[in-house]
Specification:
Length: about 280
């Protein structure tokens, strides 16, 4: 579970986003792209190369709000819309002129080995990226300055956001949800058997709803907040966990008080971590 520790979140996020492509000079030339009539939005439909095999969607963006929904189709449908209002600079409007509602930037979509990758092309501006994929698709999202919403997905879900909330609802896969500055909300209809999960935020509440019959081992860390649940949780013990890391001046050892417990006799580990916020564990 070391991969879920808060200290590694930013490093993993920046590494994932560092590979974003440079802005294309003429994105309309992308053969996968079908621009909509509105120049501030575009819709792209991409087929998975082998629909009978496991599918994966990977999204990497700096400024966009990302919404992903599972549907009964077989392709990935991506729609990107710019938010031009943010780009207006009222104080710089030349006398006698007015701004036009013109977007900039764009996205790039690729498919290889049954993995569809959606990448933002520029850190400027912002907007929405709305994606539909088959329900069984696994999803990985990395974003910096906006929120992420995932709905109706039964594959593996891994979401990281630095400055934005994370929402996973009406889903039934395993979940790793991380936000540095935002609330993490997860509602699971079912839980993938034998899969460990993690829910964490540095500055935000962790609000997770689980099936009533779930079997799980809980690992809970909260510094400035409390833990609430309507499950019958059997607290097994509290421990003072330490993590060690190297710095330019030597070694840093950090300790955190951790509470362990079980639901319905125990099962795969579920880790809940927040520094400033509450942990809410609901029974569905």
């Amino acid at each position: 579970m070391n991969r879920f520790l808060m200290g590694g979140m930013i490093v993993g996020m920046i590494a994932a986003l560092g590979a974003l492509p440079a802005p294309a000079q003429n994105p309309v030339q992308n053969p996968l792209q079908n621009p909509a009539e509105n120049q501030n939005s575009a819709q792209i439909t991409v087929a998975f190369s082998n629909p009978s095999q496991p599918r994966r969607l990977v999204v990497k963006t700096l400024m966009h709000k990302v919404t992903i929904k599972g549907y009964d189709g077989k392709d990935a449908i991506i729609e990107s819309s710019a938010i031009s209002e943010r780009r207006r600079r009222e104080r710089n409007i030349p006398p006698g002129m007015h701004p036009l509602n013109v977007g900039r930037g764009g996205i790039e979509v690729t498919e290889a080995n049954n993995v569809v990758t959606v990448s933002a092309e520029t850190p400027l501006g912002g907007g929405d990226i709305q994606i539909q994929v088959p329900v069984e698709t696994s999803v990985t999202v990395n974003t910096i300055n906006n929120g992420v919403s995932v709905e109706n997905i039964s594959g593996e879900i891994e979401v990281e956001s630095v400055n934005g909330g994370v929402s996973v609802t009406n889903s039934s896969g395993s979940v790793v949800a991380t936000s540095m500055n935002g609330k993490v909300t997860v509602v699971l209809d079912k839980v993938a058997p034998g899969k460990a999960m993690s829910f964490s935020s540095m500055n935000g509440t962790i609000d997770v709803t689980l099936p009533a019959d779930i079997k799980a081992n809980l690992k809970m860390k909260v510094d400035n907040g409390d833990v609430y649940t309507d499950f019958d949780v059997k607290v097994t013990n509290e421990a003072f966990d330490t993590t060690e890391s190297k710095t330019g001046k030597g070694v840093r050892i950090r300790g955190n008080r951790t509470t362990y417990g079980t639901i319905n006799g125990g099962g795969p580990e579920m880790q809940f971590t927040t520094f400033n916020g509450r942990i809410l564990i609901h029974k569905k």
